[in-house]
Write a structure and sequence with these properties.
The complex is a heterodimer of chains A (376) and B (309). Chain A is α/β, with parallel strands linked by helices and 376 residues long. In chain A, 28% of the residues lie in helices and 29% in strands. Chain A is built from eleven helices and 19 strands. In chain A, strands 11-12-14-13-15-16-17-18 form an eight-stranded mixed sheet, sandwiched between helices. In chain A, α6 packs across α7. The termini of chain A are far apart. Chain B has a single domain, classed as Rossmann fold, CATH 3.40.50.880. The longest helix of chain B is centred in the N-terminal third of the chain and has 36 residues. The chains are: A alpha/beta (376), B alpha/beta (309). The interface between A and B is medium-sized, with 18 and 22 residues. β19 of chain A pairs antiparallel with β5 of chain B.
């Protein structure tokens, strides 16, 4: 019997409801049952979650004569679910974060509440480690003839960066978002400190028009290969072989990653693709909206002729994403093309913390560090 | 009689100065930081810690100079390295299976005479494979020895003479950690053990590993792979009977009795000793004694304070 059932069975008064809330943290996770609570006046309350496959809104039940609302959801172990409450009063819908939950996940649109289900634990390597030496970020502007403007790029230089040594290079799409919402700098500092990846130079790129440029725009690929790479190679001591050069991105950033590598084979030996928006059609038109037209055109062409965009490709996707089917179907295709592929799934959605939590597996596979050899 | 101190990592809790005071008198210190590779020359922080004049032996840089003067030597070493690498790959194929079998048997219950016999036999299979690997490593080194010791390499001989002189003027040698294979190769190339005489040695992390009879790589929870400890190479044999385990607290699952027991039994009779922050272990000619904060992995699966060996 769940705690909420005990409470309801006791026919609680306002004081007992207050005590129940004070005694527990919310949402209340009991094995695979999760109880959400809302206190407040409303005509209806709904849970708005980001789990593809479940009804996107779930109605709370009110306790008659009180302002106490509750909802019990079954959520599989290890799930991490982002959500909001929809407070409905008359015609008005007001989406709010769960007032009783301190866990928040941020993204470019704001923040969501987060439910850490049974068995989910934020990886310890995502927290700042006072023992890890810190790398530094430097701002650069790349003069782009292709885009007719300067493009900002942040450069991560690892701790103890030395010009007389040569480094692998990783180019990141949506670099600012990876820094802000996935804690990429902390992750890099920690994984390098733990010797799980080698010290590397990381170029964090940002697009001013990502929905166009990241949607397999050939100009974007040319910018990366013909303008960004030469600039970085001229300025930093980089290892020249493709196996020491990586490209990564999430969502449309993964499309930009794959399309760039596909159009310029042999330049990037390592790709990290997170929740790629790899929409395709076998027949008929795609239904995801006009922004996906060029994506579908590219993915269809890629599926017809994958070639060898890289040597090793790491793919991850959340099982609560609408893109899970597209990502899963990409794996046999890549394998059949003779590429070395690793694919992992998580009970998570299309969000920056999902992408953060998968970085260790992906980066340490694509760029193995000197873990076994170095004892400082 | 040479005195030796093996230490844990020195970055966060340096105790090298106290260790030097215990094994050597006041005077200049020779240091090897070849494991730091391209950062070999950055010894200012170390100099601050030891509070005495230091001379960096620059083995990494000297090796580069020797390779430039004698490119054929570099080729021979590369050839040996390729053989060692291939041997390691082949060894791993077999090791993965025998270690997995031993671990599965050690995790079985209830205990019985039959099970114990199978467990013992499984561990013996791992030990036997380790011995075979160590013998193969020795064979490779033996095979290359004559070619590497060709006496006409003047640059190498000159560097050795300089190193001998520096060591002769020093009261102790300090060997820092870092990349253990790079460090070991440079120490071997210049035959540092043969130049030492009775000079006391203080070594930490990879430096301590290089001094042991066998150099064992270990990590119980790497981001990829099973985390199987493996013998990388034959060590310099200056630290008898000890298998040093730097950063053991973060690298090993010391709370997993099966892994601890297997590790201890596999490498017995060597004492598998943790070297974490603040750890030190002293050799004064007859026995190893605990300076501070060292623990020993036990066949029982326990990790106990190390006292004397």
């Amino acid at each position: 019997m769940l705690a909420i059932h005990h409470l309801l069975a006791s026919e609680p008064d306002a004081e007992a409801l207050d005590a129940f809330i004070a005694e527990h943290s919310f949402p209340l996770v009991e094995d695979t049952s999760v109880t959400f609570i809302y206190r407040g006046e409303a005509d209806a309350v709904e849970l708005r979650h980001f789990i593809f496959g479940l009804e996107s809104s779930q109605a709370f039940t009110s306790l008659p004569g009180t302002d106490f609302w509750y909802l019990i959801q079954t959520l599989p172990a290890t799930s991490r679910v982002e959500y909001k409450f929809d407070i409905i009063r008359g015609e008005n819908h007001h989406w709010i974060r769960d007032p009783l939950n301190r866990h928040l996940a941020y993204d470019p649109f704001g923040a969501n509440s987060v439910c850490h289900c049974s068995g989910y634990q934020r990886p310890e390597w995502t927290f700042e480690d006072p023992e890890a030496r810190e790398g530094r970020l430097e701002e650069r502007r790349i003069s782009s003839r292709i885009f007719g403007e300067d493009r900002p790029v942040k450069i991560y230089l690892p701790a103890r960066f030395r010009r007389r040594r040569r480094y692998p290079l990783l180019v990141v799409h949506d670099g600012d978002d990876y820094l802000r919402f996935s804690g990429l700098k902390t992750v890099l500092d920690n994984l390098i400190h733990r010797l799980e990846i080698p010290p590397m130079v990381v170029a964090l790129t940002t697009s001013s028009d990502r929905l166009k440029e990241y949607a397999a725009d050939p100009d974007h690929g040319r910018f990366i290969v013909e303008e960004l790479l030469p600039e970085l190679e001229g300025e930093f001591p980089l290892l020249p072989e493709p196996r020491f050069r990586g490209l990564m991105g999430a969502s449309f950033g993964a499309v930009a990653t794959l399309s760039t590598a596909w159009r310029h084979p042999g330049r990037f030996g390592r790709l990290l693709l997170q929740s790629g928006s790899f929409a395709f059609t076998d027949i008929g038109k795609q239904k995801r909206g006009p922004a996906f037209d060029p994506v579908v055109e590219f993915v269809n062409a890629f599926r017809d002729e994958p070639g060898r965009p890289a040597q090793k490709i790491f793919v991850s996707c959340g099982v609560y994403e609408s893109l899970i089917y597209e990502n899963r179907s990409m794996i046999p295709l890549l394998q059949a093309a003779g590429l070395e592929v690793r694919y992992i799934e998580a009970r998570d959605g299309h969000n920056w913390e999902n992408w953060r939590d998968r970085l260790r597996k992906g980066l340490s596979w694509l760029f193995p560090g000197p873990l076994w050899m170095v004892y400082e | 009689m040479r005195r030796i101190a093996l230490l844990g990592p020195q970055r966060l809790q340096p105790i090298i100065s106290q260790a030097l005071d215990r094994v050597a008198g006041q005077g200049p210190l020779a240091v090897v930081t070849a494991g730091w590779q391209e950062r070999e020359s950055e010894v200012d922080e170390l100099a601050d810690h030891v509070r005495r004049p230091i001379t960096n032996l620059r083995l990494h840089a000297r090796a580069e100079e020797v390779f430039q003067a004698h490119p054929e030597l570099f080729s021979i070493l590369r050839e040996r390295q390729d053989q060692l690498k291939l041997l390691q790959q082949l060894h791993r194929l077999r090791l993965d299976y025998v270690l997995e079998a031993a671990r599965r048997l050690l995790r079985r219950s209830p205990s019985s005479t039959l099970l114990e016999k199978e467990q013992e036999s499984a561990i013996e299979a791992v030990r036997s494979l380790d011995d075979h690997h160590a013998a193969s490593l020795r064979d490779i080194h033996r095979e290359f020895e004559a070619r590497l010791k060709e006496p006409s390499r003047e640059a190498l001989l000159r560097h050795r003479r300089e190193l001998e002189e520096i060591l002769g003027d020093s009261v102790a040698l300090a060997i820092a950690g870092g990349h253990v294979a790079v460090l070991l190769n440079r120490l071997r190339l210049f035959e540092i053990p043969a130049l030492l005489g009775d000079l006391p040695v203080v070594a930490w992390s990879a430096g301590a590993m290089a001094l042991a009879d066998r150099v064992v790589l270990f990590h119980d929870h790497p981001p990829q792979g099973a985390g199987n400890a493996e013998i990388l190479d034959i060590g310099l044999g200056l630290a008898p009977g000890i298998l040093p385990l730097p950063h053991a607290e973060s690298r090993l699952r010391l709370d997993d009795p099966v892994r601890v027991s297997l590790f201890a039994r596999r490498f017995s009779p060597a004492a598998c000793v943790t070297l974490d922050n603040g750890s030190s272990l002293l050799w004064e000619g007859q026995s190893w004694t605990d300076g501070s904060n060292t623990r020993r992995l036990q066949p029982s699966g326990d990790v106990e304070v190390f006292e004397v060996l």
